[in-house]
């Protein structure tokens, strides 16, 4: 395998960032960008985000999860508590989120502290999920080794029979996490690789300091 990718080129020219035109709160800017990306179209899942954790093997690992709620308290997603990332977050609650929205040539990187959300909120969200997704949460012992796909498909079939006529409870090993940001970086692609990068650093409660980073 030997592929030369040096010919890949793209000029970023859709927008720009100027400090004077930005809100004082990074949450407001994030919400504005999120809405603009949705309205522009061309992104299948605007809420898809990469979460990076430091694993028990001391290697960082990144994977895509789906953002399910955000406000000034943080960014909420759901997963298996005993998964590889669940164990990593239990051991080290410093994580990084990133969103890449190529339709508007934008990226947002968020450093933060992650914690489990209240059980009641996890239960409420679980009940809102399609039945197949509810059963899938029970069927998969996420990140554990399995000998074949047939094993998990048989497990799902058994669960479908067990819960064919009754409510599916939330698994005790599954629920939500909230990432409380301590730093945001907003990246807007610009021509000639002179991209705009604006960092918001948490200085105190509800107070953020803006600074420009070299591209």
Q: What does this entry look like structurally?
A:
With 215 residues, the protein is an alpha+beta fold. It is 26% helix and 34% strand. The protein has helices spanning 26-40, 84-91, 119-128, 131-139, 149-162, and strands at 48-54, 60-66, 69-71, 74-80, 94-101, 106-116, 174-188, 196-204, 207-213. Strands 1, 2, 3, 4, 5, 6, 7, 8 and 9 form a nine-stranded antiparallel β-sheet that branches. Strand 8 and strand 9 (207-213) form a beta hairpin. Helix 4 (131-139) crosses helix 5 (149-162). The chain starts with 25 loop residues before the first helix and ends with a strand. The model has no long low-confidence stretch (mean pLDDT 96).
Short synopsis of the structure:
The chain is 26% helix and 34% strand.
Keywords:
26% helix; 215 residues; 9-stranded antiparallel sheet; alpha+beta; single chain; 5 helices
């Amino acid at each position: 395998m030997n592929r030369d990718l040096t010919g890949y080129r793209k000029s970023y020219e859709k927008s720009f960032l100027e400090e004077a035109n930005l809100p004082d709160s990074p949450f407001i800017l994030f919400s504005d960008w999120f809405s603009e990306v949705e309205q522009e179209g061309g992104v299948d899942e605007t809420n898809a985000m990469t979460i990076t954790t430091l694993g028990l093997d001391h290697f960082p690992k990144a994977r895509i999860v789906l953002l399910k709620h955000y406000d000034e308290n943080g960014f909420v997603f759901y997963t298996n508590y005993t998964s590889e990332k669940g164990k990593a977050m239990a051991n080290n609650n410093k994580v990084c989120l990133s969103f890449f929205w190529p339709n508007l040539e934008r990226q947002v990187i968020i450093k933060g502290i992650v914690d489990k959300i209240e059980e009641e909120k996890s239960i409420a969200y679980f009940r809102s999920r399609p039945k197949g997704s509810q059963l899938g949460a029970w069927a998969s012992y996420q990140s554990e080794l399995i000998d074949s796909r047939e094993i998990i498909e048989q497990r799902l079939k058994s669960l479908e029979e067990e819960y064919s006529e009754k409510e599916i409870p939330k698994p005790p090993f599954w629920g939500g996490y909230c990432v409380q940001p301590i730093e945001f970086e907003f990246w807007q692609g610009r021509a000639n690789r002179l991209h705009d990068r604006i960092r918001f650093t948490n200085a105190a409660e509800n107070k953020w300091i803006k600074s420009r980073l070299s591209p």
